[in-house]
C-alpha cells in the first residue's frame, strides 16, 4: 500500500533535477543577454576606433620644389593678387615629374594621378603668403606634398590580404610608390589640417572645424533657450501649478513630446520656422530652435525631479522667516536644485549634439566649406558632416567620416563625464 | 545700429531704470524714516520698473525683426515692372531674393533696373533700423521715467513682480502645449493639401510608391504614385527585426540584473549598457551600412538553402538589407527596453517573491510565474514605447536601407521606410506645393499619429500599473 501513497517530498524530488536544470538555463539566458549587449558595445567601439584612427593621418611625399618665378607667373613679389593667383600646380607638377624622372606625356599623366595637386598648391601658397616672397623666389624649398587619396587608401592598407585599393594603379605607378616608400620619402603623419579647416570637395583637404563650430553654435542657442525655459517650466509645475486639468494636460504633453520621433520636430521646424517665419535655411539659429523644443522635455523632467528632491522643511523655514513665494523659490529651492538641473541639461544637450534627423529636415546637411562665425551663418553640424561624408562615394571621405565619429564620441563622452561629475560632486542628499 | 548692439542698449537702459527706481525708493524710505515704511523691498521697485520697460521693448523689437523683411518685400514689389509683378508666385519670390542678394552685395549682377531696386531695398532697411532704434530707445526712456515717477511708499511693487514672475513661469510651461499644437498644425495642414491632390484611400491602401517618376508632363503616371503600403510594410519589417533582437535581450538583461546580479555587477553593467543608448544614431547608421550590411551579404549571399537534400534556391542578399538595419536598431533599443523593464520589475513588491519562495519555488520559477506576470503590464508598456522608438528611428534606416519601395517581407531584400521617404522627399529642393513635398508631411502625420497613440497607451498602462502597488 505504501507505493500507492506517494509522499509530496518524493514528487518534489522527482522533478527537482529538471527544475534545477531549468533554473540554470534561465540564469544562462540572462548572462548570455548581458554578454551579447556588452559584446555589441565592444564590437561597435573597436570597429569605430579602428576605422576612425586612420582618418586622422595621411601620407605625404617629401618633394623639393624650385620656386621658379617664371612658372609661377609672379612678376612683382609685393603684389598679393599675383601671389594668390600664381600657377602653383604647374610648379608642383614639374617637381613631381623631376622626382619620378618622367618626361613623356603618358607617364606624366600617371604621375599627376599620384598627387593631390590642388591641396599641395594651397600649402605652397600659404608658405609664400607668410614668408618673404622676394627672398623665397628662385630658391628650393622642401614641402610635404599631399598624395592622392587613392594612394593614401592603398598605403594605409598595405599589409591586408588581397591588398584593397591596388587595382586603381598600374604596374608602373605601383613601382613608383614602392621606390618612394623605400627611399623614405613617403611620410605617414597626423593630418593637422583636419582640425583646422572646413569641408572641401577633395577628401584630402576636408576638415572638421566647420562642423565643430556649427555644432558649438547649435548647442549655444539650444542651451540659452532650453535651460531658462526648462527650469521655469519645471518650477511652475512643481511649485506653483494647481492640480487641475490644465496642469494634467501640460504634463501629458511633456511626456508625449519626450517620445515623439525626432524627425517630426524637423517637420515642425521646416513648416513653422522656415516656411512660415522665413528664417534662413541651414543656420544654427533655426537648428537651435528645433533642438530646444526637442530637449525641453528632458530638461523639464529632470529639473522637476531635482526640485522634488529639495525637502519641504527648507521651504517652510524660509516662509517662517517671512520670505515671499518668489523669494523662497529663487533664494532657496532653485540653488539647491541647481546641480540636478545642470546634470539634466548637460544630458539633454548631449542628446542634442548627436541628433541628426531634425537637422536633416531643415537643410543642415549641406556642403558648406566656410567655417561659420555666428548663429546666423549657414553651417553644418558634426552628425550632419558625418552623414555628408558617408554619402560621398569617395573612399577618402569614408575615412574622414569615421574620424569625425570619433571626434563626436569624444565630445559626447566628455559631456557625460561632466554630468556624472556634477551629480557626484554637487548634488546634496538629504 | 545692428540688432545685437541695439539689444545691448535696451538691456543697458533697463538696467539704468532698475537702479534709478531702486535708488528712488531708498531715498523715499530715508525721508520717511526707514525701510519699514515702504510696502516692498527696494529691489522690487527696481524689478517692477525693469519689467515694465523690458517687456514692451522686447515685444516691439521681436515683432519688428520678424515683420520687417516681409514689409520691405511688399514695398519692393511696387518698383518692379508690371510684367514682373504678374509673374507666378514662385518666380516672384526668386526674383525678390535675388534682389536682396544684390542689396547685400553677395551677388554681382549688373542689370541697372535690379541695381536701382536693390539700392531702394538698402534704403528701406536703413530706415527700418533707424526707426526701430528710435522707437525702442524712446520707449525705454518714456516707460522708465513714468515708472520712476510712480515709485511711492504705497505702491505694492512686490505683488506685481511676483505676479509677473508666476505668469512668465506659466508661459514657459505652456511651450510644451504650443509645440504639440505647432506639430499638429504644421503636419495636418500640409497633409490636407496633399489629400486634396491624392485621395486618401489611394495613399493608405495603394501598393505602388514612386514619387520620383514625374519627369515629363505627358508621361503615364506623371503625378507619381503615392501608395504608402510598401513603406508601412518596410517600417514594420525593420521594426519587427529590431524588436526580435531588443525585447528578449533587454528583458532577460533586466531580469538578470534585478533578480540575480549583485550590486557590484549591476553598478558596472548598467552604465555600460546605457552607453549603447547614448551613441548617436548617425554612428549606428554608419556602422550598419559599412560593417554589418557587408558582413551579412558576405556570409549569406549565395548560400545554398537545402532541406533534406532538396535545394530550395540560392539566397540573394541585398547590400542594403532590412536585416542589417533591423539588427543594429535592435542593439540600440536594448538599453531602452532593459532600463524600462528594470524599473517595473523592481516595483514588484518583495512580499510577492517571498510568498513564492515560501511555497518552495526556485528563483527562476518565481520570476516566470510571479514576478513576470505581475510586471507584465509595465513590460508591455515598455515594449510599446520601444516599438514607437523603432518606428520613428531615422538615421539608421536612411543610411543603411535603400529608397526603392518594394512590397516584401523578406529581411534579406532592400526595403524602404516611412522616415527614409520623408527625408528623401524633403532633402534638396523645396517647392511647397508639389505633391512630392506634401507627401512627406502626410507620412509625418501617419508617423505622428502612430507614435502618439503608442506612447499614450504605453504611458497609460505604466501609470495604471504603478498605482496598483504604491
Automatic annotation (TrEMBL), chain A:
Q: Which key words are in the record?
A: Cell membrane, Membrane, Transmembrane, Transmembrane helix, Transport
Source organism per UniProt: Candidatus Endobugula sertula (Bugula neritina bacterial symbiont)
PANTHER family reported in the protein's UniProt record: PHOSPHATE TRANSPORT SYSTEM PERMEASE PROTEIN PSTA, PHOSPHATE TRANSPORT SYSTEM PERMEASE PROTEIN PSTA-RELATED
Xref: CDD domains: TM_PBP2
Q: Name one GO biological process term.
A: phosphate ion transmembrane transport
Transmembrane regions listed in the UniProt entry = 26-49, 216-237, 257-279, 285-307, 328-353, 401-422
Q: Name one Pfam family in it.
A: DUF3333
**InterPro entries hit by this protein:** DUF3333, MetI-like, MetI-like_sf, Phosphate_PstA
Q: What Gene Ontology terms describe what this protein does at the molecular function level?
A: phosphate transmembrane transporter activity
Name of the protein:
Phosphate transport system permease protein PstA
Q: Where in the cell is it found?
A: Cell inner membrane; Cell membrane
| Topology with respect to the bilayer | Multi-pass membrane protein
A GO cellular-component term linked to this record: plasma membrane
Keyword check for Transmembrane helix, yes or no: yes
Q: Residues in domain ABC transmembrane type-1? A: 212-419
Top-rank taxon of the source lineage equals Bacteria
Record family assignment: Belongs to the binding-protein-dependent transport system permease family. CysTW subfamily.
Automatic annotation (TrEMBL), chain B:
* Assigned keywords, A-Z: Cell inner membrane, Cell membrane, Membrane, Phosphate transport, Transmembrane, Transmembrane helix, Transport
- Which InterPro entries does the entry link to? MetI-like, MetI-like_sf, Phosphate_PstC, PstC_N
Gene3D superfamilies hit by this protein:
MetI-like (1.10.3720.10)
Q: Which GO terms describe its biological process?
A: phosphate ion transport
Give the subcellular location.
Cell inner membrane; Cell membrane
Which Pfam families does its entry note? Answer: BPD_transp_1, DUF3708
Any one GO CC term of this protein is:
plasma membrane
Q: Where is the ABC transmembrane type-1 domain?
A: 232-458
**Gene Ontology MF annotations:** phosphate transmembrane transporter activity
Membrane-spanning ranges = 6-23, 43-67, 127-146, 167-189, 236-260, 272-296, 308-334, 370-391, 438-459
Membrane-related topology note? Multi-pass membrane protein
**Family per similarity comment:** Belongs to the binding-protein-dependent transport system permease family. CysTW subfamily.
| Purpose of the protein | Part of the binding-protein-dependent transport system for phosphate; probably responsible for the translocation of the substrate across the membrane.
The protein depicted here goes by the name: Phosphate transport system permease protein
Q: What species is this protein from? A: Candidatus Endobugula sertula (Bugula neritina bacterial symbiont)
Amino acid at each position: 500500500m505504501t507505493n500507492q501513497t506517494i509522499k509530496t517530498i518524493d514528487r518534489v524530488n522527482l522533478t527537482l533535477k529538471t527544475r534545477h536544470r531549468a533554473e540554470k538555463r534561465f540564469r544562462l539566458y540572462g548572462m548570455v543577454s548581458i554578454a551579447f549587449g556588452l559584446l555589441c558595445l565592444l564590437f561597435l567601439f573597436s570597429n569605430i576606433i579602428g576605422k576612425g584612427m586612420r582618418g586622422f593621418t595621411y601620407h605625404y611625399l617629401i618633394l623639393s620644389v624650385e620656386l621658379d618665378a617664371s612658372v609661377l607667373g609672379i612678376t612683382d613679389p609685393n603684389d598679393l593678387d599675383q601671389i594668390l593667383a600664381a600657377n602653383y600646380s604647374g610648379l608642383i607638377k614639374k617637381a613631381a615629374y623631376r622626382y619620378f624622372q618622367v618626361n613623356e606625356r603618358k607617364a606624366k599623366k600617371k604621375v599627376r594621378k599620384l598627387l593631390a595637386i590642388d591641396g599641395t598648391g594651397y600649402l605652397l601658397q600659404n608658405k609664400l603668403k607668410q614668408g618673404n616672397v622676394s627672398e623665397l623666389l628662385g630658391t628650393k624649398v622642401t614641402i610635404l606634398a599631399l598624395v592622392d587619396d587613392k594612394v593614401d587608401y592603398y598605403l594605409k592598407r598595405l599589409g591586408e590580404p588581397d591588398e584593397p585599393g591596388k587595382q586603381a594603379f598600374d604596374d608602373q605607378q605601383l613601382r613608383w610608390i614602392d621606390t618612394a616608400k623605400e627611399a623614405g620619402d613617403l611620410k605617414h603623419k597626423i593630418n593637422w589640417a583636419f582640425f583646422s579647416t572646413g569641408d572641401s570637395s577633395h577628401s584630402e583637404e576636408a576638415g572638421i572645424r566647420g562642423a565643430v563650430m556649427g555644432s558649438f553654435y547649435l548647442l549655444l542657442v539650444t542651451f540659452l533657450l532650453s535651460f531658462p525655459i526648462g527650469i521655469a517650466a519645471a518650477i511652475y509645475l512643481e511649485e506653483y501649478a494647481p492640480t487641475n486639468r490644465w496642469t494634467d494636460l501640460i504634463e501629458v504633453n511633456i511626456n508625449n513630446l519626450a517620445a515623439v520621433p525626432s524627425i517630426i520636430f524637423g517637420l515642425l521646424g521646416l513648416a513653422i520656422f522656415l516656411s512660415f517665419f522665413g528664417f534662413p535655411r541651414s543656420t544654427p539659429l533655426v537648428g537651435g530652435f528645433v533642438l530646444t523644443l526637442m530637449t525641453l522635455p528632458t530638461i523639464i523632467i529632470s529639473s522637476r525631479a531635482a526640485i522634488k528632491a529639495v525637502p519641504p522643511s527648507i521651504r517652510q523655514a524660509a516662509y517662517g522667516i517671512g520670505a515671499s513665494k518668489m523669494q523662497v523659490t529663487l533664494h532657496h529651492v532653485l540653488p539647491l536644485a541647481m546641480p540636478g538641473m545642470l546634470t539634466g541639461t548637460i544630458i539633454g544637450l548631449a542628446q542634442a549634439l548627436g541628433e541628426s534627423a531634425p537637422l536633416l529636415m531643415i537643410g543642415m546637411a549641406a556642403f558648406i566649406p566656410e567655417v561659420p562665425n555666428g548663429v546666423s551663418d549657414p553651417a553644418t553640424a558634426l552628425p550632419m558632416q558625418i552623414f555628408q561624408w558617408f554619402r560621398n562615394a569617395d573612399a577618402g571621405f569614408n575615412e574622414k567620416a569615421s574620424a569625425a565619429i570619433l571626434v563626436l564620441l569624444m565630445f559626447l563622452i566628455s559631456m557625460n563625464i561632466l554630468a556624472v561629475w556634477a551629480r557626484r560632486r554637487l548634488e546634496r542628499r538629504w | 545700429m545692428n540688432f545685437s548692439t541695439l539689444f545691448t542698449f535696451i538691456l543697458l537702459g533697463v538696467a539704468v531704470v532698475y537702479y534709478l527706481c531702486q535708488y528712488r525708493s531708498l531715498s523715499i524710505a530715508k525721508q520717511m524714516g526707514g525701510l519699514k515704511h515702504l510696502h516692498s523691498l527696494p529691489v522690487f521697485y527696481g524689478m517692477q520698473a525693469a519689467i515694465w520697460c523690458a517687456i514692451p521693448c522686447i515685444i516691439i523689437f521681436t515683432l519688428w525683426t520678424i515683420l520687417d523683411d516681409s514689409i520691405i518685400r511688399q514695398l519692393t514689389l511696387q518698383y518692379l515692372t508690371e510684367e514682373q509683378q504678374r509673374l507666378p508666385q514662385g518666380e516672384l519670390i526668386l526674383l525678390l531674393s535675388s534682389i536682396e542678394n544684390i542689396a547685400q552685395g553677395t551677388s554681382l549682377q549688373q542689370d541697372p533696373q535690379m541695381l536701382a531696386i536693390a539700392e531702394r531695398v538698402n534704403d528701406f532697411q536703413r530706415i527700418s533700423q533707424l526707426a526701430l532704434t528710435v522707437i525702442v530707445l524712446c520707449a525705454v526712456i518714456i516707460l522708465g521715467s513714468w515708472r520712476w515717477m510712480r515709485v511711492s511708499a504705497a505702491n505694492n511693487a512686490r505683488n506685481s513682480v511676483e505676479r509677473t514672475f508666476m505668469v512668465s513661469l506659466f508661459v514657459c510651461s505652456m511651450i510644451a502645449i504650443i509645440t504639440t499644437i505647432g506639430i499638429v498644425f504644421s503636419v495636418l495642414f500640409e497633409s490636407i493639401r496633399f489629400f486634396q491632390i491624392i485621395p486618401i484611400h489611394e495613399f493608405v491602401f495603394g501598393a505602388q510608391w514612386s514619387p520620383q517618376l514625374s519627369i515629363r508632363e505627358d508621361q503615364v503616371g506623371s503625378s507619381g504614385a503615392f501608395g504608402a503600403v510598401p513603406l508601412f510594410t518596410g517600417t514594420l519589417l525593420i521594426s519587427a527585426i529590431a524588436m526580435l533582437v531588443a525585447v528578449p535581450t533587454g528583458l532577460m538583461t533586466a531580469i538578470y540584473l534585478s533578480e540575480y546580479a549583485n550590486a557590484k555587477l549591476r553598478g558596472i553593467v548598467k552604465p555600460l549598457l546605457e552607453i549603447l543608448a547614448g551613441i548617436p544614431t548617425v554612428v549606428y547608421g554608419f556602422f550598419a551600412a559599412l560593417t554589418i550590411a557587408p558582413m551579412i551579404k558576405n556570409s549569406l549571399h549565395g548560400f545554398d538553402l537545402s532541406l533534406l537534400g532538396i535545394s530550395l534556391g540560392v539566397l540573394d542578399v541585398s547590400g542594403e538589407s532590412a536585416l542589417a538595419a533591423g539588427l543594429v536598431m535592435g542593439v540600440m533599443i536594448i538599453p531602452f527596453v532593459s532600463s524600462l523593464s528594470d524599473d517595473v520589475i523592481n516595483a514588484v513588491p518583495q512580499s510577492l517573491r517571498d510568498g513564492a519562495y515560501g511555497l518552495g519555488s526556485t528563483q527562476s520559477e518565481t520570476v516566470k510565474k510571479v514576478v513576470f506576470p505581475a510586471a507584465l503590464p509595465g513590460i508591455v508598456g515598455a515594449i510599446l514605447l520601444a516599438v514607437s522608438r523603432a518606428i520613428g528611428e531615422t538615421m539608421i534606416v536612411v543610411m543603411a536601407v535603400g529608397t526603392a519601395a518594394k512590397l516584401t517581407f523578406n529581411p534579406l531584400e532592400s526595403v524602404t521606410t516611412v522616415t527614409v521617404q520623408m527625408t528623401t522627399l524633403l532633402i534638396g529642393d523645396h517647392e511647397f506645393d508639389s505633391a512630392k513635398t506634401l507627401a512627406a508631411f502626410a507620412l509625418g502625420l501617419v508617423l505622428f499619429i502612430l507614435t502618439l497613440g503608442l506612447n499614450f497607451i504605453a504611458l497609460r498602462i505604466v501609470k495604471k500599473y504603478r498605482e496598483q502597488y504604491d
